[in-house]
Amino acid sequence: MTATARPLLMSATAAYRTVEWRAEVLKAALEAIGAEQGLKLGKVQAPVRVAVTGRTVGLPLFESLEVLGRDRTLGRLLAALDRLG
Prior knowledge:
- It is a single chain.
- By secondary structure, the chain is mainly α.
- The protein has a single domain (5-81), classed as Arc Repressor Mutant, subunit A (Orthogonal Bundle), CATH 1.10.10.
- Helix content is 74%, strand content 0%.
- It has helices spanning 5-16, 23-37, 41-53, 61-68, 70-84.
- Helix 1 (5-16) crosses helix 3, helix 2 packs across helix 3 and helix 3 (41-53) crosses helix 5 (70-84).
- The longest helix is centred in the middle third of the chain and has 15 residues, at 23-37.
- The chain is globular and about 30 Å long.
- It starts with a helix and ends with a helix.
């Protein structure tokens, strides 16, 4: 993960604590984070995908997060933040 991964994961974790847990809302939250930082969705979702799935490619991310659930998703994001130091 790049140097931008940590702040992106922190922002995603904060946003995902409170938003409605539906794929469209999860995507919109991440798009808003990207817009704040001047990044396109692909650059913002990459660290989230790696943190949550352990892969750089895979099934549609937001639908996967919805199925995985808030608690498991947040747990994986927090674990990735711990690993990043």
